[in-house]
Amino acid sequence: MEVVRSLAGSSVAALAAVLLLSAGCGGGDEKAAETGVAPAGGAKVFADANCGGCHTLQAADASGTVGPNLDEVRPNVDRVERQVRKGGGSMPAFEDKLSDDQIREVSEFVATSAGSGEGESKKFTFEPDDKKIDDCNGDTQCIQQAFGNLASEDGPKAALTKLDEMQKTDSTIQSNCHPIAHMIGAGGLRHFDGNVGKAFVAGSATCGSGYYHGLLQWKLAGVEEDKAAEVARTACDDPEIKSNNFNYYQCQHGLGHGLMLYTGYELPIALTMCHGLSGEFEQVSCSGGVFMENLSSSFGLKTRWIRKDNLLYPCNIVSRQDKLYCYLLVSSRILPEVGWRWEKAADWCRKSEKDFVDICFQSYGRDASGTATQNPRQAKGYCARAGNGERECIFGAARDIMNNNSQDVRGGQFCSIVKRAHRSYCFFGLGTILGTQNADPAGKREACSKFARGRDLADCIDGATT
Questions:
Q1: What angle do CA 435, 441, 445 make, to 5 degrees?
Q2: 3-state DSSP call for residue 390?
Q3: For the chain, what is the domain count?
Protein backbone atom coordinates (compact mmCIF):
# COMPACT_ATOMS: atom_id res chain seq x y z
CA MET A 1 0.00 0.00 0.00
CA GLU A 2 2.88 2.37 0.70
CA VAL A 3 4.06 1.74 -2.86
CA VAL A 4 0.66 2.78 -4.15
CA ARG A 5 0.73 5.88 -1.94
CA SER A 6 4.14 6.92 -3.21
CA LEU A 7 3.08 6.42 -6.80
CA ALA A 8 -0.05 8.43 -6.20
CA GLY A 9 1.81 11.22 -4.52
CA SER A 10 4.13 11.70 -7.49
CA SER A 11 1.38 12.38 -10.02
CA VAL A 12 -1.83 14.31 -10.51
CA ALA A 13 -4.99 12.23 -11.05
CA ALA A 14 -5.43 10.70 -14.45
CA LEU A 15 -8.12 12.62 -16.29
CA ALA A 16 -11.18 11.71 -18.46
CA ALA A 17 -10.76 9.48 -21.57
CA VAL A 18 -12.05 8.56 -25.11
CA LEU A 19 -10.73 7.12 -28.51
CA LEU A 20 -8.37 8.39 -31.25
CA LEU A 21 -6.53 7.84 -34.57
CA SER A 22 -3.62 8.79 -36.77
CA ALA A 23 -3.45 12.01 -38.73
CA GLY A 24 -3.25 12.96 -42.32
CA CYS A 25 -4.71 12.30 -45.73
CA GLY A 26 -2.21 14.68 -47.39
CA GLY A 27 1.18 16.37 -47.08
CA GLY A 28 3.67 18.67 -48.85
CA ASP A 29 7.20 19.31 -50.10
CA GLU A 30 9.83 21.94 -49.39
CA LYS A 31 8.98 24.22 -52.31
CA ALA A 32 5.35 24.52 -51.31
CA ALA A 33 6.34 25.00 -47.68
CA GLU A 34 8.67 27.83 -48.63
CA THR A 35 6.19 29.64 -50.86
CA GLY A 36 3.06 28.92 -48.86
CA VAL A 37 1.17 28.47 -52.15
CA ALA A 38 -0.99 25.36 -52.37
CA PRO A 39 -0.76 23.68 -55.81
CA ALA A 40 -3.98 23.43 -57.78
CA GLY A 41 -3.18 19.84 -58.78
CA GLY A 42 -3.11 18.82 -55.13
CA ALA A 43 -6.63 20.13 -54.62
CA LYS A 44 -7.83 17.91 -57.46
CA VAL A 45 -6.08 14.85 -56.04
CA PHE A 46 -7.57 15.60 -52.62
CA ALA A 47 -11.05 15.71 -54.16
CA ASP A 48 -10.60 12.71 -56.49
CA ALA A 49 -9.24 10.54 -53.67
CA ASN A 50 -12.25 11.56 -51.55
CA CYS A 51 -10.03 12.78 -48.73
CA GLY A 52 -12.82 15.19 -47.82
CA GLY A 53 -15.03 12.23 -46.98
CA CYS A 54 -12.86 11.66 -43.92
CA HIS A 55 -11.20 14.98 -43.13
CA THR A 56 -12.12 18.59 -42.52
CA LEU A 57 -10.04 21.05 -44.57
CA GLN A 58 -11.55 24.46 -45.14
CA ALA A 59 -9.48 25.18 -48.26
CA ALA A 60 -11.00 22.10 -49.91
CA ASP A 61 -14.51 22.84 -48.64
CA ALA A 62 -14.27 19.49 -46.86
CA SER A 63 -15.99 18.70 -43.58
CA GLY A 64 -15.44 14.98 -42.99
CA THR A 65 -15.35 13.80 -39.39
CA VAL A 66 -14.05 10.22 -39.66
CA GLY A 67 -10.41 11.32 -39.62
CA PRO A 68 -8.63 14.22 -37.92
CA ASN A 69 -9.56 17.81 -38.69
CA LEU A 70 -6.56 18.86 -40.77
CA ASP A 71 -7.10 22.54 -40.04
CA GLU A 72 -6.63 21.76 -36.34
CA VAL A 73 -3.88 19.16 -36.59
CA ARG A 74 -2.03 21.12 -39.32
CA PRO A 75 0.43 18.32 -40.17
CA ASN A 76 3.74 19.25 -41.74
CA VAL A 77 4.90 18.13 -45.17
CA ASP A 78 6.94 15.07 -44.24
CA ARG A 79 4.39 13.72 -41.81
CA VAL A 80 1.49 14.00 -44.21
CA GLU A 81 3.37 12.43 -47.11
CA ARG A 82 4.36 9.52 -44.89
CA GLN A 83 0.74 9.08 -43.80
CA VAL A 84 -0.57 9.19 -47.37
CA ARG A 85 1.94 6.60 -48.53
CA LYS A 86 1.73 4.15 -45.64
CA GLY A 87 -1.67 4.79 -44.07
CA GLY A 88 -2.29 3.88 -40.46
CA GLY A 89 -5.15 3.29 -38.08
CA SER A 90 -8.29 3.14 -40.21
CA MET A 91 -6.75 5.18 -43.05
CA PRO A 92 -5.72 3.14 -46.12
CA ALA A 93 -2.31 3.43 -47.76
CA PHE A 94 -2.24 5.33 -51.06
CA GLU A 95 1.23 4.26 -52.17
CA ASP A 96 -0.20 1.88 -54.78
CA LYS A 97 -3.19 4.06 -55.64
CA LEU A 98 -1.52 7.39 -56.41
CA SER A 99 1.62 8.21 -58.37
CA ASP A 100 4.61 9.84 -56.71
CA ASP A 101 3.66 13.12 -58.38
CA GLN A 102 0.08 12.90 -57.12
CA ILE A 103 1.23 12.13 -53.59
CA ARG A 104 3.63 15.05 -53.73
CA GLU A 105 0.92 17.40 -55.02
CA VAL A 106 -1.72 16.43 -52.48
CA SER A 107 0.92 16.66 -49.76
CA GLU A 108 1.81 20.20 -50.82
CA PHE A 109 -1.85 21.14 -50.91
CA VAL A 110 -2.74 19.82 -47.46
CA ALA A 111 0.39 21.11 -45.72
CA THR A 112 0.14 24.64 -47.09
CA SER A 113 -3.64 24.88 -46.91
CA ALA A 114 -3.70 23.71 -43.31
CA GLY A 115 -1.06 26.35 -42.55
CA SER A 116 1.76 24.07 -41.48
CA GLY A 117 4.38 25.32 -43.92
CA GLU A 118 3.99 29.07 -43.90
CA GLY A 119 6.64 30.20 -41.47
CA GLU A 120 6.91 31.14 -37.82
CA SER A 121 3.78 33.27 -37.69
CA LYS A 122 1.61 30.29 -38.50
CA LYS A 123 2.78 28.17 -35.59
CA PHE A 124 0.51 29.87 -33.11
CA THR A 125 -2.37 30.78 -35.39
CA PHE A 126 -5.92 30.22 -34.29
CA GLU A 127 -8.18 31.80 -36.89
CA PRO A 128 -11.06 33.66 -35.20
CA ASP A 129 -14.29 34.42 -37.01
CA ASP A 130 -17.58 36.13 -36.13
CA LYS A 131 -19.28 33.15 -34.43
CA LYS A 132 -20.91 33.90 -31.07
CA ILE A 133 -21.87 31.30 -28.47
CA ASP A 134 -25.50 32.42 -28.34
CA ASP A 135 -25.87 31.90 -32.09
CA CYS A 136 -24.75 28.26 -32.20
CA ASN A 137 -28.03 26.53 -31.26
CA GLY A 138 -26.39 23.31 -30.09
CA ASP A 139 -23.96 23.01 -33.02
CA THR A 140 -20.83 21.64 -31.31
CA GLN A 141 -18.34 22.81 -33.96
CA CYS A 142 -19.84 26.29 -33.81
CA ILE A 143 -19.68 26.25 -30.01
CA GLN A 144 -16.02 25.24 -30.01
CA GLN A 145 -15.11 27.96 -32.50
CA ALA A 146 -17.15 30.56 -30.60
CA PHE A 147 -15.38 29.79 -27.33
CA GLY A 148 -12.06 29.99 -29.15
CA ASN A 149 -13.11 33.37 -30.51
CA LEU A 150 -13.93 34.58 -27.00
CA ALA A 151 -10.56 33.42 -25.67
CA SER A 152 -8.72 35.03 -28.55
CA GLU A 153 -10.49 38.37 -28.10
CA ASP A 154 -11.03 38.68 -24.33
CA GLY A 155 -8.51 36.18 -23.01
CA PRO A 156 -8.80 32.58 -21.79
CA LYS A 157 -9.98 33.49 -18.30
CA ALA A 158 -13.18 35.02 -19.68
CA ALA A 159 -13.82 32.01 -21.91
CA LEU A 160 -13.13 29.45 -19.18
CA THR A 161 -15.37 31.30 -16.73
CA LYS A 162 -18.14 31.28 -19.33
CA LEU A 163 -17.57 27.56 -19.92
CA ASP A 164 -17.84 26.81 -16.19
CA GLU A 165 -21.10 28.75 -15.99
CA MET A 166 -22.74 27.29 -19.09
CA GLN A 167 -21.89 23.64 -18.50
CA LYS A 168 -24.06 23.75 -15.37
CA THR A 169 -27.21 24.29 -17.43
CA ASP A 170 -26.36 23.33 -21.03
CA SER A 171 -26.10 19.56 -21.60
CA THR A 172 -24.39 19.97 -24.98
CA ILE A 173 -21.67 22.11 -23.48
CA GLN A 174 -21.33 19.81 -20.47
CA SER A 175 -20.84 16.71 -22.63
CA ASN A 176 -18.35 18.52 -24.90
CA CYS A 177 -16.56 20.61 -22.29
CA HIS A 178 -13.15 18.96 -22.84
CA PRO A 179 -12.94 19.63 -26.60
CA ILE A 180 -14.36 23.11 -26.03
CA ALA A 181 -11.59 23.74 -23.51
CA HIS A 182 -9.10 22.52 -26.13
CA MET A 183 -10.27 25.26 -28.47
CA ILE A 184 -10.10 27.84 -25.69
CA GLY A 185 -6.45 26.81 -25.39
CA ALA A 186 -5.98 27.56 -29.09
CA GLY A 187 -7.60 30.97 -28.75
CA GLY A 188 -5.75 31.68 -25.52
CA LEU A 189 -2.40 31.00 -27.14
CA ARG A 190 -3.26 33.45 -29.91
CA HIS A 191 -4.38 36.04 -27.35
CA PHE A 192 -0.90 35.92 -25.82
CA ASP A 193 0.92 35.84 -29.18
CA GLY A 194 2.19 32.30 -28.67
CA ASN A 195 3.62 32.87 -25.19
CA VAL A 196 2.96 29.57 -23.42
CA GLY A 197 3.94 30.88 -19.98
CA LYS A 198 1.47 33.76 -20.00
CA ALA A 199 -1.24 31.57 -21.51
CA PHE A 200 -0.75 28.89 -18.85
CA VAL A 201 -0.95 31.28 -15.92
CA ALA A 202 -4.21 32.68 -17.33
CA GLY A 203 -5.83 29.23 -17.61
CA SER A 204 -7.51 26.68 -15.35
CA ALA A 205 -7.86 22.91 -15.08
CA THR A 206 -11.61 22.87 -15.74
CA CYS A 207 -13.05 20.06 -17.87
CA GLY A 208 -10.19 17.65 -17.36
CA SER A 209 -7.57 20.31 -18.11
CA GLY A 210 -8.62 20.51 -21.75
CA TYR A 211 -7.38 24.10 -21.93
CA TYR A 212 -3.81 23.06 -21.20
CA HIS A 213 -3.98 20.18 -23.68
CA GLY A 214 -5.27 22.42 -26.45
CA LEU A 215 -2.68 25.06 -25.72
CA LEU A 216 0.21 22.62 -26.18
CA GLN A 217 -1.47 21.02 -29.20
CA TRP A 218 -1.47 24.36 -30.99
CA LYS A 219 2.01 25.25 -29.76
CA LEU A 220 3.36 22.26 -31.70
CA ALA A 221 1.18 22.64 -34.79
CA GLY A 222 3.23 23.34 -37.89
CA VAL A 223 6.65 22.89 -36.30
CA GLU A 224 9.16 21.30 -38.68
CA GLU A 225 9.92 17.70 -37.76
CA ASP A 226 13.63 18.25 -37.22
CA LYS A 227 12.81 21.00 -34.71
CA ALA A 228 9.97 19.24 -32.88
CA ALA A 229 12.11 17.55 -30.22
CA GLU A 230 13.73 20.86 -29.25
CA VAL A 231 10.35 22.62 -29.10
CA ALA A 232 9.08 19.80 -26.88
CA ARG A 233 12.06 20.12 -24.52
CA THR A 234 11.61 23.86 -24.09
CA ALA A 235 7.81 24.27 -24.33
CA CYS A 236 7.30 24.21 -20.56
CA ASP A 237 10.64 25.77 -19.59
CA ASP A 238 9.12 29.04 -18.47
CA PRO A 239 9.51 30.54 -14.96
CA GLU A 240 5.80 31.38 -14.77
CA ILE A 241 4.90 27.75 -15.43
CA LYS A 242 7.61 26.15 -13.29
CA SER A 243 6.78 28.29 -10.26
CA ASN A 244 3.56 26.28 -9.75
CA ASN A 245 3.80 22.49 -9.52
CA PHE A 246 0.28 21.94 -10.81
CA ASN A 247 0.81 24.19 -13.85
CA TYR A 248 4.14 22.55 -14.56
CA TYR A 249 2.57 19.09 -14.43
CA GLN A 250 -0.28 20.20 -16.69
CA CYS A 251 2.18 21.64 -19.18
CA GLN A 252 4.18 18.42 -19.44
CA HIS A 253 1.00 16.34 -19.54
CA GLY A 254 -0.52 18.61 -22.18
CA LEU A 255 2.71 18.29 -24.14
CA GLY A 256 2.05 14.55 -24.35
CA HIS A 257 -1.36 15.23 -25.88
CA GLY A 258 0.23 17.64 -28.33
CA LEU A 259 2.95 15.17 -29.31
CA MET A 260 0.40 12.49 -30.14
CA LEU A 261 -1.47 14.92 -32.36
CA TYR A 262 1.77 16.16 -33.88
CA THR A 263 3.10 12.68 -34.72
CA GLY A 264 -0.17 11.53 -36.24
CA TYR A 265 -1.02 9.39 -33.20
CA GLU A 266 2.12 7.28 -33.54
CA LEU A 267 2.41 6.27 -29.90
CA PRO A 268 6.01 4.93 -29.97
CA ILE A 269 7.32 8.12 -31.60
CA ALA A 270 5.44 10.34 -29.15
CA LEU A 271 6.74 8.32 -26.18
CA THR A 272 10.29 8.55 -27.50
CA MET A 273 9.98 12.34 -27.59
CA CYS A 274 8.67 12.29 -24.00
CA HIS A 275 11.68 10.21 -22.98
CA GLY A 276 13.91 12.98 -24.33
CA LEU A 277 12.65 15.48 -21.75
CA SER A 278 14.90 16.68 -18.94
CA GLY A 279 13.88 14.54 -15.96
CA GLU A 280 11.78 11.63 -14.71
CA PHE A 281 8.89 13.86 -13.62
CA GLU A 282 8.76 15.53 -17.02
CA GLN A 283 9.00 12.22 -18.88
CA VAL A 284 6.31 10.47 -16.84
CA SER A 285 3.91 13.43 -16.98
CA CYS A 286 4.34 13.70 -20.74
CA SER A 287 3.78 9.97 -21.27
CA GLY A 288 0.52 10.27 -19.34
CA GLY A 289 -0.71 12.78 -21.90
CA VAL A 290 0.35 10.45 -24.70
CA PHE A 291 -1.63 7.53 -23.28
CA MET A 292 -4.68 9.66 -22.58
CA GLU A 293 -4.66 10.94 -26.14
CA ASN A 294 -4.32 7.35 -27.35
CA LEU A 295 -7.55 6.47 -25.57
CA SER A 296 -9.48 9.69 -25.74
CA SER A 297 -9.54 12.88 -27.67
CA SER A 298 -11.73 15.76 -28.63
CA PHE A 299 -11.74 14.30 -32.12
CA GLY A 300 -13.37 10.97 -31.18
CA LEU A 301 -11.31 8.86 -33.59
CA LYS A 302 -9.68 5.42 -33.50
CA THR A 303 -6.05 4.62 -32.84
CA ARG A 304 -4.19 1.52 -33.97
CA TRP A 305 -2.59 1.22 -30.53
CA ILE A 306 -5.57 -0.57 -28.97
CA ARG A 307 -6.87 -4.13 -29.44
CA LYS A 308 -10.27 -5.69 -29.08
CA ASP A 309 -8.90 -9.03 -27.88
CA ASN A 310 -6.61 -7.48 -25.26
CA LEU A 311 -8.20 -4.58 -23.44
CA LEU A 312 -5.04 -3.97 -21.40
CA TYR A 313 -3.03 -3.21 -24.55
CA PRO A 314 -0.71 -1.32 -24.93
CA CYS A 315 -0.08 -1.14 -21.16
CA ASN A 316 1.15 -4.72 -21.01
CA ILE A 317 3.70 -4.28 -23.81
CA VAL A 318 5.23 -0.83 -23.21
CA SER A 319 8.43 -0.36 -21.23
CA ARG A 320 8.14 -0.32 -17.45
CA GLN A 321 8.81 3.40 -17.24
CA ASP A 322 5.60 4.02 -19.21
CA LYS A 323 3.30 1.52 -17.51
CA LEU A 324 2.08 3.63 -14.58
CA TYR A 325 0.25 6.26 -16.58
CA CYS A 326 -0.99 3.75 -19.12
CA TYR A 327 -2.65 1.69 -16.39
CA LEU A 328 -4.00 4.84 -14.72
CA LEU A 329 -6.15 5.28 -17.83
CA VAL A 330 -6.80 1.73 -18.96
CA SER A 331 -10.33 1.33 -17.54
CA SER A 332 -11.52 4.00 -19.95
CA ARG A 333 -10.60 1.53 -22.68
CA ILE A 334 -12.10 -1.46 -20.86
CA LEU A 335 -15.50 -0.14 -19.78
CA PRO A 336 -16.97 0.76 -23.20
CA GLU A 337 -15.78 -2.58 -24.60
CA VAL A 338 -17.55 -4.59 -21.88
CA GLY A 339 -20.76 -2.58 -22.19
CA TRP A 340 -20.16 -0.63 -18.97
CA ARG A 341 -20.57 -3.81 -16.94
CA TRP A 342 -18.50 -2.81 -13.95
CA GLU A 343 -17.97 -6.34 -12.64
CA LYS A 344 -16.55 -7.37 -16.04
CA ALA A 345 -14.24 -4.36 -16.02
CA ALA A 346 -13.04 -5.38 -12.56
CA ASP A 347 -12.20 -8.84 -13.93
CA TRP A 348 -9.99 -7.21 -16.55
CA CYS A 349 -8.22 -5.15 -13.89
CA ARG A 350 -7.42 -8.34 -12.03
CA LYS A 351 -5.69 -9.59 -15.21
CA SER A 352 -3.27 -6.66 -15.13
CA GLU A 353 0.41 -7.25 -14.53
CA LYS A 354 0.99 -8.00 -10.86
CA ASP A 355 2.44 -4.64 -9.86
CA PHE A 356 -0.30 -2.69 -11.65
CA VAL A 357 -3.55 -4.32 -10.51
CA ASP A 358 -4.11 -1.59 -7.91
CA ILE A 359 -3.33 1.09 -10.48
CA CYS A 360 -5.97 -0.32 -12.83
CA PHE A 361 -8.53 -0.10 -10.03
CA GLN A 362 -7.52 3.52 -9.42
CA SER A 363 -8.32 4.10 -13.08
CA TYR A 364 -11.62 2.29 -12.49
CA GLY A 365 -12.34 4.79 -9.71
CA ARG A 366 -11.56 7.73 -11.96
CA ASP A 367 -14.15 6.41 -14.40
CA ALA A 368 -16.59 5.74 -11.57
CA SER A 369 -16.42 9.41 -10.61
CA GLY A 370 -16.58 10.59 -14.20
CA THR A 371 -19.52 8.37 -15.10
CA ALA A 372 -21.35 9.56 -11.99
CA THR A 373 -20.48 13.17 -12.94
CA GLN A 374 -18.87 13.39 -9.49
CA ASN A 375 -22.09 12.43 -7.68
CA PRO A 376 -20.84 10.92 -4.39
CA ARG A 377 -23.46 8.21 -3.93
CA GLN A 378 -23.37 7.07 -7.53
CA ALA A 379 -19.58 6.92 -7.54
CA LYS A 380 -19.64 4.94 -4.31
CA GLY A 381 -22.09 2.50 -5.91
CA TYR A 382 -19.84 1.90 -8.89
CA CYS A 383 -16.86 1.30 -6.61
CA ALA A 384 -18.84 -1.26 -4.62
CA ARG A 385 -18.92 -3.37 -7.80
CA ALA A 386 -15.13 -3.56 -7.94
CA GLY A 387 -14.98 -6.39 -5.39
CA ASN A 388 -11.53 -6.57 -3.85
CA GLY A 389 -10.59 -3.48 -5.86
CA GLU A 390 -13.06 -1.22 -4.03
CA ARG A 391 -10.40 0.47 -1.88
CA GLU A 392 -8.32 1.59 -4.86
CA CYS A 393 -11.48 2.58 -6.70
CA ILE A 394 -12.42 4.90 -3.82
CA PHE A 395 -8.94 6.43 -3.95
CA GLY A 396 -9.14 6.99 -7.71
CA ALA A 397 -12.63 8.47 -7.52
CA ALA A 398 -11.62 10.92 -4.78
CA ARG A 399 -8.69 12.11 -6.85
CA ASP A 400 -10.86 12.54 -9.92
CA ILE A 401 -13.39 14.71 -8.10
CA MET A 402 -10.61 17.02 -6.94
CA ASN A 403 -8.84 16.98 -10.27
CA ASN A 404 -11.99 17.99 -12.08
CA ASN A 405 -12.56 20.90 -9.68
CA SER A 406 -10.37 21.44 -6.64
CA GLN A 407 -13.11 23.54 -5.02
CA ASP A 408 -15.82 20.87 -5.37
CA VAL A 409 -17.29 20.18 -1.91
CA ARG A 410 -18.43 16.79 -3.17
CA GLY A 411 -14.89 15.54 -2.63
CA GLY A 412 -15.31 15.75 1.13
CA GLN A 413 -18.89 14.50 0.89
CA PHE A 414 -17.75 11.44 -1.04
CA CYS A 415 -15.09 10.49 1.49
CA SER A 416 -17.59 10.99 4.33
CA ILE A 417 -19.97 8.31 3.01
CA VAL A 418 -17.57 5.53 1.96
CA LYS A 419 -16.93 2.50 4.16
CA ARG A 420 -15.03 3.30 7.35
CA ALA A 421 -12.19 1.02 6.23
CA HIS A 422 -11.66 3.19 3.15
CA ARG A 423 -12.23 6.62 4.67
CA SER A 424 -8.62 7.44 5.57
CA TYR A 425 -7.33 6.44 2.13
CA CYS A 426 -10.07 8.50 0.50
CA PHE A 427 -9.11 11.72 2.28
CA PHE A 428 -5.47 10.91 1.57
CA GLY A 429 -6.45 10.78 -2.11
CA LEU A 430 -8.04 14.22 -1.96
CA GLY A 431 -4.80 15.53 -0.51
CA THR A 432 -2.64 14.13 -3.31
CA ILE A 433 -4.38 16.49 -5.72
CA LEU A 434 -4.67 19.50 -3.43
CA GLY A 435 -0.97 19.21 -2.60
CA THR A 436 0.03 19.72 -6.23
CA GLN A 437 -1.85 23.01 -6.35
CA ASN A 438 -0.38 24.51 -3.18
CA ALA A 439 3.38 24.72 -2.78
CA ASP A 440 3.79 25.66 0.89
CA PRO A 441 2.64 23.66 3.97
CA ALA A 442 0.23 26.40 5.07
CA GLY A 443 -1.43 26.40 1.66
CA LYS A 444 -1.79 22.62 1.70
CA ARG A 445 -3.38 22.70 5.17
CA GLU A 446 -5.75 25.51 4.19
CA ALA A 447 -6.84 23.65 1.05
CA CYS A 448 -7.50 20.43 2.98
CA SER A 449 -9.36 22.27 5.75
CA LYS A 450 -12.09 23.16 3.25
CA PHE A 451 -12.99 19.48 3.00
CA ALA A 452 -11.96 17.79 6.25
CA ARG A 453 -11.67 18.06 10.03
CA GLY A 454 -9.84 16.14 12.73
CA ARG A 455 -8.46 12.76 11.65
CA ASP A 456 -9.77 13.32 8.11
CA LEU A 457 -7.81 16.57 7.89
CA ALA A 458 -4.64 14.82 9.01
CA ASP A 459 -5.12 12.19 6.29
CA CYS A 460 -5.68 14.86 3.66
CA ILE A 461 -2.56 16.77 4.74
CA ASP A 462 -0.63 13.50 4.70
CA GLY A 463 -1.65 13.04 1.06
CA ALA A 464 -0.84 16.65 0.21
CA THR A 465 2.68 16.38 1.59
CA THR A 466 3.56 12.91 0.25
A1: 70
A2: helix
A3: 3
At 234, the amino acid letter reads: T
On whether the CB atoms of residues 325 and 287 are closer than 8 A, the answer is yes
- Residue 206 CA to residue 160 CA, distance in Å, equals 8
Which residue intervals of 155-205 are DSSP H helices?
A: 156-166, 171-175, 177-191, 196-201
Residues 395-450 pLDDT 10s: 999 999 998 888 899 999 999 999 999 999 999 999 999 998 887 899 999 999 99
Question: 288 and 347: one domain?
Answer: no
Q: Coil, strand or helix: which one is 71?
A: helix
290, part of any domain: yes
What sign does the CA torsion over 126, 132, 134, 140 have? Answer: negative
Question: Do 47 and 111 contact (CB within 8 A), yes or no?
Answer: no
For the stretch 331-379, pLDDT in tens is: 999 999 999 999 999 999 999 999 999 999 999 999 999 999 899 999 9
From the centroid of its chain, how far is CA 321?
20
The helix/strand/coil state of 273 is helix
Sorted by sequence, the CB contacts under 8 Å of residue 5 that are 6+ apart come out as: 428, 463, 466
Residue 128 lies in a domain: no
pTM above 0.85, yes or no: no
Is 454 contained in some domain?
yes
- Strand 62-63 relative to strand 56-57: parallel, antiparallel, unpaired? antiparallel
Nearest to 311 by CA among 352, 343, 341, 271: 352
- For residues 252 and 236, the answer to whether their CB atoms sit within 8 Å is yes
User: Could you give the CA distance from residue 456 to residue 426 in angstroms, rounded to a whole number?
Assistant: 9
- Report if residue 425 sits inside a domain: yes
Q: Which residue range is the domain that position 141 belongs to?
A: 134-295
